[in-house]
Write a structure and sequence with these properties.
956 residues; alpha+beta; 34 strands; elongated
Length: 956
């Protein structure tokens, strides 16, 4: 009867509960129809915030809070469960979830997530098994293993330390199991989740935290940055909720104490079912429990006894190894307790201490540190705050003086460290005899002093550089040379010595470092652009034990005076060399002048005959006239060579440069290849360029420079001739020229040829210097140009770039700024009938002269032997009206022939011609009564005019 009543009561209770649940569900469905779905991402194992209940549904403090907030904001939360935090982050990025409650706020997450105000703070701590005294901090994991939970900042913290092995676990529970099983020696994890798991597994007494918190992580609600409106709603709601009694209750349930499984609700539902089962099984269960407990106790006892035995053996082995290690140390080891005041007796000493101090081990163990330390030194240690340093830093290193049993005082180095033994603080001192070191330091210091004195005593500069050319050390001489650059040490050598921002292109020290060989060079100082002196720099590489260069020694010697002496010596040598060259040129000119001008005379004579025999308006006539002009201009070539070598003089007249340039260019155009583009550019004031010079020499300059330019361009390129007026100051005139400042006509010849390097430009004006083949030139063209320019008080500048071209700028001093009309050339060819004796040893010249003069009406007697001509004249001196003779002839020269003829007939008119003669010139010829003096080749109209003037003058 009673049982039936109980059953009815239970049935009624169940029926009421079902009715209430149904009504609640209907109500919820009614309200949910208006609520917005909110997808919430959570991890399945991160208590007390997240975990799964027995039905696999999410539970925890963060779950209850987000549910309460969602309800107040009219949201329906839908939970998505993930294995680990990386999966949650991925889901946020993919936008498969809307929000994550209580997520750790880190700098990396802030870049793409927005967080609410922090709702809680979790500390990340270091854990190890309880009783493990070997681990005091992360610094103790050099030879140990440590576990880290994935994506919980542990990896970033541990990476700052030197650890033996690092293992990353996906879940906190996996890491806890590894720590409890001994797979790892320590674990870095958030404190609340690990503490909750350990509590639930009843292993909280097996682990311990080590030291203070490694890092505190604030936690808050997280959404994507573009979802700030949602975050604002939950942030405001959460801020109010955290102050409520409901939150305090939830926090107490999940984070304060374990939630009881047997709640009143569960008891009410199951009390009827379990009451009968409990009564029936109570007796049997109690018997079995007692029996099982006895077995476990016995097994635990046996296991404990085995562990005690193994531990005892392990400790004995460790103690044996400890004594072996300690007593085999060469350094002295002393151990005593760290007291608040004063010193304790030594607790332990090694064999080295016994051997050194002379006391037995028993005697040392009754002594204190102040018994072996010199009192004065000990007082100094105490005054210097030895104890405070030890307490604050945990270690102390200092030099001291210890007293042996014999009374001997020995300098020692003491390295003291605080160690923790069984919870007590001890000072372990490592003591070393430093007498040898002090002696070596003394010797090293004396050696350094000696070397420094010797280093500074050198009157030449010495610098020591590293591989990167940083100055490491210098002697006093270098400091004197570069006193304006102090301090020198620590700077780059090229910054101090050459005022550059990069390595010098000629750097011998860099060459010595790279090649391993000594280098010697000469450098200007203070810099390349403004050298006030010269230094001889020797660079010697420095080698380490492996034979590799680690630096260089620079030895600098002042050689400014030596360079000046060498320059003066070189100048004297150059003057002597130039003198010899000029003598050679003079000898050469004298040897070839006569024959050269005779050949030109033959050519000019044939041209003159050809012109006379050509009909008027012949197409050949202009060509012959051009050849005739070129021959006239070329007849002075040998005189120019003589002028350069012997500084002779020429017929200088006031000349307007443009007409001479035009005439020369017109001659050049007929001989230049069509592939050469010749340009002629005169500035507006170029027509005012009036210069006192010999026009033929100006033409010689242009011909030489243009021919050189055409060859340099390989007959293909641009050739430009320009003329302008310029003003030159003193700084514009090179020192080798004596030209004064003033107005100059600048004649420029520019080509686009192969150009020249700088070393070649310095030699191009040397006589006989040439870069051409033997058949292309003898190297006298530019030498002649320089000689002509120097005689006219001018100067030359050359600018040449390899593969770009060359520019010659020639400057002539301006006489006046006015236009000079060129005098027309007299081309009249007067005729006559007089009897002429024509004497020349060249048969071709005799033939040409006879034909030309005969065509002009004269009666010509031509002779090739001067002695025969003298005999002919002596036989009939009144037969001839005029004598024309060459100077250079065998047996009897022209001058001597005329002297002999005048002895016979003093009034006989005479004309002397020569290709070259060192024996006579125009002035000497006039002094000796010779009526006219000509340089071959002869211009026929000029010869006829002179003959007519002499003959008519004699008649008058």
């Amino acid at each position: 009867m009673v049982l039936q009543q109980k059953r009815k009561l239970l049935f009624i209770l169940l029926l009421c509960a079902a009715t209430t649940l149904l009504l609640t569900s209907v109500s919820c469905l009614t309200h949910q129809s208006d609520k917005q779905i909110l997808t919430v991402g959570v991890v399945k194992n991160f208590p007390p915030l997240y975990q799964l209940d027995n039905q696999g549904e999410p539970a925890g403090l963060a779950i209850d809070v987000i549910k309460s907030l969602s309800s107040s904001l009219n949201y329906e939360p839908r939970f998505v469960i993930f294995d680990a935090w990386p999966d949650v982050e991925h889901a946020l990025k993919e936008k498969t979830i809307d929000i994550v409650p209580d997520m750790g706020i880190t700098d990396s997450r802030k870049k793409w997530l927005s967080f609410s105000r922090p709702s809680s703070t979790f500390s990340i701590s270091l854990f190890c098994l309880r009783g493990n005294k070997d681990i005091q901090s992360l610094n103790d994991f050099k030879d140990k293993s440590i576990g880290i939970v994935n994506c919980m900042l542990g990896d970033a913290i541990v990476s700052k330390y030197d650890v033996g092995r690092k293992t990353i676990y996906p879940h906190i529970s996996d890491a806890l199991v590894a720590l409890l099983s001994g797979a790892i020696d320590g674990l870095v994890s958030p404190l609340p989740p690990l503490a909750r798991l350990a509590h639930d597994a009843h292993v909280e007494n097996q682990i311990q935290t080590v030291g203070a918190s490694l890092f505190d992580v604030k936690r808050g609600i997280a959404v994507l940055k573009n979802n700030d409106a949602l975050l604002k709603e939950f942030d405001q709601a959460q801020s109010e909720f955290l102050k409520s009694e409901e939150y305090k209750k939830l926090h107490s349930i999940w984070a304060g104490y374990e939630r009881p499984y047997w709640t009143s609700k569960r008891i009410l539902i199951l009390i009827g079912t379990l009451t009968g089962i409990v009564i029936v099984l109570m007796g049997g269960w109690r018997y079995r429990s007692i029996r099982t407990l006895n077995k476990k106790l016995q097994l635990a006892k046996d296991s404990l006894e085995l562990k005690v035995k193994e531990r005892t053996q392990e400790l004995a082995a460790k103690e044996q190894r400890y004594h072996a290690v300690v007593n085999n140390q060469k350094d002295i080891l002393l151990l005593h307790m760290l007291l608040a005041e004063g010193f304790s007796n030594f607790c332990e000493v090694n064999d080295a201490a016994v051997d050194f101090y002379g006391y037995s081990r028993e005697e040392l163990l009754t002594m204190k540190p102040n018994d072996i330390v010199c009192p004065i030194v000990l007082r100094g240690h105490l005054e210097s705050g030895f104890r405070n340093t030890m307490l604050s830093q945990g270690e102390y290193v200092a030099e001291s003086v210890h007293i042996k049993k014999s009374g001997e005082r020995v300098p020692m180095e003491v390295s003291a460290t605080i160690v923790d033994l069984d919870g007590d603080k001890y000072i372990l001192s490592n003591v070393r005899d430093i007498r040898d070191r002090i002696q070596k330091n003394k010797e090293i210091k004396e050696s350094e002093t000696f070397l420094r004195c010797m280093f500074d005593s050198f009157q030449d500069g010495i610098s020591v550089l590293d591989r990167d050319l940083n100055v490491i050390k210098v002697n006093k001489r270098v400091e004197e040379l570069y006193s304006d650059q102090m301090p020198i040490v620590g700077k780059k050598c090229y910054q101090v010595y050459h005022k550059r921002n990069s390595v010098c292109p000629f750097c011998p020290s860099m060459e010595a470092i790279e090649t391993g060989g000594a280098q010697l060079t000469e450098v200007p100082y203070p810099d390349m652009d403004n050298p006030q002196g010269w230094l001889e720099l020797a660079s010697y590489p420095l080698f380490n034990d492996d034979g590799e260069t680690f630096g260089v020694i620079e030895y600098v010697k002042e050689i400014t005076q030596r360079k000046k002496d060498e320059a003066e010596h070189a100048a004297l040598e150059e003057q002597l060399r130039q003198k010899h060259k000029m003598e050679a040129v003079g000898y050469m000119a004298g040897g070839i002048a006569h024959n050269f001008n005779n050949n030109l005379a033959i050519i000019l004579g044939n041209v003159e005959l050809s012109l006379l025999k050509q009909p008027q308006n012949s197409e050949v006539t202009p060509l012959l006239e051009n050849a005739k002009t070129a021959i006239r201009n070329s007849k002075d070539l040998i005189l120019k060579i003589i002028t350069y070598s012997r500084k002779g003089s020429h017929n200088k007249v006031l000349t307007s440069l443009p007409p001479i340039i035009d005439e020369t260019v017109s001659l050049l155009c007929s001989t230049l290849p069509v592939t050469v583009n010749l340009q002629q550019v005169f500035s507006p004031d170029g027509s005012l360029a009036i210069v006192n010079l010999d026009p033929s020499q100006l033409q010689e300059i242009l011909v030489n420079l243009c021919n050189n330019a055409v060859q340099a361009m390989d007959e293909n390129g641009d050739l430009k001739i320009s003329l302008e007026l310029v003003e030159l100051g003193e700084k514009d005139i090179p020192p080798q020229y004596e030209a004064p400042p003033g107005s100059y006509a600048k004649l420029s010849v520019q080509d686009t040829g192969c150009g020249m390097p700088a070393e070649m430009v310095d030699r191009i004006f040397d006589p006989f210097y040439t870069t051409k083949e033997d058949y292309e030139g003898a190297g006298m063209g530019l030498a002649t140009v320089q000689g002509i320019v120097a005689q006219h008080g001018g100067l030359i500048k050359v600018n040449s770039i390899p593969n770009r071209g060359t520019l010659f700028d020639i400057y002539f001093p301006i006489i006046k700024a006015s236009v000079i009309e060129p005098l027309p050339m007299n081309t009249d060819m007067p005729k006559g009938t007089e009897k002429i004796l024509f004497v020349d040893d060249d048969e071709q010249l005799v033939s040409i002269g006879k034909n030309l003069l005969s065509d002009s009406g004269y009666q010509i007697t031509a002779m090739t032997e001067s002695t025969e001509a003298l005999k002919l004249f002596t036989a009939n001196p009144d037969h001839f009206d005029l004598i024309i003779t060459d100077q250079t002839m065998p047996h009897l020269t022209g001058k001597d022939l005329i002297q002999e003829l005048k002895k016979i007939r003093p009034d006989i008119p005479t004309i002397l011609c020569t290709g070259y003669s060192s024996k006579i010139n125009e002035e000497e010829a006039k002094e000796q009564g010779i009526d006219a003096f000509f340089i071959k080749p002869l211009y026929f109209p000029e010869l006829l005019q002179t003959m007519r003037m002499i003959l008519d003058g004699k008649k008058e």
